[in-house]
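task queued by scheduler; priority normal; single chain, no ligands, no partner chains; default sampling; output format set to structure tokens
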Amino acid sequence: MLRRVSNGANLNQNGFSLLEVLVTLVVVAIGLLGVAGTQVAAIKLNRVAETRSSGVMYASDILERMRANPLNASSYVTTFTGTATSSTTQAERDLRDWKAAIARLPGGQGRIEVVATDASLCELPAVSRCSEVTVTLRWTESNVVGGSSSPTEFVTKTRI
């Protein structure tokens, strides 16, 4: 294919269209690799978010169980390594179920601390006694590539 340029010179442009197509394919391939990388990162971070959401849900679950059984709040005290083997009281059944639930988290452990406080610090209606409860959940995110091998902790405090 000959092309006439304004100065009258003839230029040979055979194969130029093929080169344009190849460059376009390379650019599109790099773009698709970028999109694929973004998708992989999103899937990893979605798993981390799911684990953290589950941790918050498990902490709320045990607090609601304790609110349903406020007179026995001190019976819910447990350590990270503690297990609830007996299930004769409601608190023991709640702890057994809770420990089983948090075991679904990767490396999941939980601790509950209960400190009796002055009832005047509690919200209305007035109660004869009140407890400050701290729930701590611990798990690892090492199952996600690039995740931390050190434990992740979620701590929540409330009064019951």
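post-processing summary
- The first strand starts at residue 2 and ends at 4.
- The chain has one domain: 2-159.
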